[in-house]
Amino acid sequence: xxxxxxxxxxxxxxxxxxxxxxxxxxxxxxxxxxxxxxxxxxxxxxxxxxxxxxxxxxxxxxxxxxxxxxxxxxxxxxxxxxxxxxxxxxxxxxxxxxxxxxxxxxxxxxxxxxxxxxxxxxxxxxxxxxxxxxxxxxxxxxxxxxxxxxxxxxxxxxxxxxxxxxxxxxxxxxxxxxxxxxxxxxxxxxx
Length: 191
Prior knowledge:
Layout: E1 3-5, E2 12-14, E3 21-24, E4 27-31, H1 50-61, H2 76-90, H3 105-114, H4 136-152, H5 171-188
């Protein structure tokens, strides 16, 4: 297909323009979905995308109990418990009470879904791992099962749960949030 880049006398013909490719750690993993761009300029990842899900699952499986953190206070087993709590909320398995936040929830939701996350950002109280150690293997297995349960839920169906801090969420919102959350914490432990 021929596309014209620009207009007027300086327009240039281009044979084909390909969509941006979705990458994780600069490795292409499949065609990007038509969603808003992430902070890197690449299409935002969704946990419902099989390639994204497969990559995140592989990274979870590669975690080791002695993995050291790059930032924050959690150990790797506590991080797994933390992301599992978020996934459990996303699939509607735990009731969540709305949390009062300092910004309007739609604004906070936009920021969380579209802006880079700083390291050591505040965490909702129900997702804070106590400082006791968790069972690493059990939490890792639980994480993989929750990823699958999450992906089994149709992204376009009604009735996705309300997020305690972000308010109403569509399936696409949840899918973007959980992919971003998992990626963030796997980077925390170099996975």
